[in-house]
Amino acid sequence: MRSRGGTPGFPLIWDAIVVGAGPAGATTALLLARAGGSVLLLDRARFPRDKPCSEYLSPATTDVLQRLGGGVLDAVERATHARLYGMKVVAPGGAAMLGRFRGASRPYSLALPRTSFDAILVAAAARAGAHVAEATTVENLAWERGAVAGVVARSRKGRRVTCHARIVVGADGLRSVVARRLGLVRYSPPRRFAFTAHVADVAGVDQVGELHVSDRGYVGLGPVGGGITTVALVLPLHVVRGSDRDYRREFFSELDRFPGLAGRFDPRRLVREVLATGPFAQWAKAAAVPGALLVGDAADFFDPFTGQGIHTALRGAELAADCLIPGLAHRVSTTMPLQSYERARRRAFRGKWLLERLIALGVGSPALTDRVVARLARRPDLADLLVSVTGNLLPARRVFAPSVLARLLW
Ligand SMILES: Cc1cc2nc3c(=O)[nH]c(=O)nc-3n(C[C@H](O)[C@H](O)[C@H](O)COP(=O)(O)OP(=O)(O)OC[C@H]3O[C@@H](n4cnc5c(N)ncnc54)[C@H](O)[C@@H]3O)c2cc1C
């Protein structure tokens, strides 16, 4: 294992092994280590590493970063980044709406490359005392008396080790090995696939994120600082699987099929290769079983349209830590508070889950998207409300009020 950070030597049993050092895993490790737990944070990648993402931190994420302390928010604000003040959505028929973030002392989102953001969190976890082992892939789980008791991991040199822990946190993203080994993975429509790239000097980019919907899929784009725009092309899985086109090579010609995007990109200004990810949606039937918890995309990832994944990963980490820390302090190894984690997740995310799914399904229907976007274009107050809810600044129930639904649809 190539490792850095905190705890000298390996204990026989860690308080927690966290699999995956993305936002969910690094944040969980940071919080548990800061509370005095011995924490092993494993990732198959070496940081800094890229991650296919539109790299927008919904505005409420700033508050979570501030709560995390340890200089995390300062480091994010010192890194090259952009500020986005709202979201523009362009419907297949050409109608366009703009919603501004409302209801926050900082009514903007920070957007920065995942290479820097994720590395900031991993470094913070290491400073808090987590033992970070990079280039280490978890292949399997270790079991004792019907409960998860550790992981089987392989270093890049091929050395296989079994590490034991009181709790294993699966934070290993969309294709989580932990969730798969637990037999918890479920799929649901809409099934989509994404291609993301960094492009310099994109014409017409302003201080808002953009979402362009067509009858084929959608494109999300936004600045991430330094003259770079992150561009995500999201297509239905059947389109990608049913064709022999190489969407990575034909990325720019696909973008040109969206009327609001044609002519805005110079393919020679591609500054990072096109990354592919999917298929999604994917979610876990349960987020906690004896000896293990799932956090972030490993627990649920429906669709990137609303850009809430990083906030969910960080909030999920906070909820997991809240449930685990009392047990860590007393070195309780058997009765981890699994039910309370499931309950806390339902309370925190139920509205978001529903809204995220409805929007993800809705953008699959060009006629419905045209209709809703045209209404929102005429009602800036509603557009602000919807964008602020998906920015996690306001609770989802505000959108489900009958008066709001009626004005959106009729
Ligand atoms: C196209 C697209 C655009 C998106 N845009 C946005 C956006 O603008 N804003 C937003 O908030 N969210 C966005 N998301 C969602 C966001 O990327 C995720 O929700 C977020 O990355 C989840 O964080 P995580 O820590 O759960 O997982 P990840 O960030 O995926 O981290 C998982 C980590 O686990 C590691 N890992 C995986 N398997 C193993 C293993 N077997 N052993 C060891 N390590 C392992 C990986 O190397 C990785 O570092 C987007 C997603 C997609 C697909």
Summarize the structure in short.
The chain is an alpha+beta fold and 410 residues long. The chain contains 13 helices and 20 strands. The model is unreliable at 2-7 (pLDDT under 50).
Describe it for me?
The structure is a single chain. This protein is α+β, with helices and mostly antiparallel strands and 410 residues long. Helix content is 34%, strand content 30%. It has helices spanning 23-34, 61-68, 72-78, 114-127, 177-181, 237-241, 251-255, 309-329, 338-362, 366-378, 380-390, 397-400, 402-409; strands at 2-4, 13-19, 39-42, 56-57, 82-84, 86-90, 96-100, 109-111, 131-134, 136-144, 147-155, 160-170, 185-200, 209-213, 218-225, 228-236, 270-284, 288-289, 292-294, 300-301. A hairpin with a 2-residue loop joins strand 10 (136-144) and strand 11 (147-155). Helix 1 packs parallel to helix 4 (114-127) and helix 1 (23-34) runs parallel beside helix 8. It is globular, with a radius of gyration of 21 Å. Bound molecules: flavin-adenine dinucleotide. The site of flavin-adenine dinucleotide has 41 residues, from helix 1, strand 10, strand 13, strand 16 and helix 8.
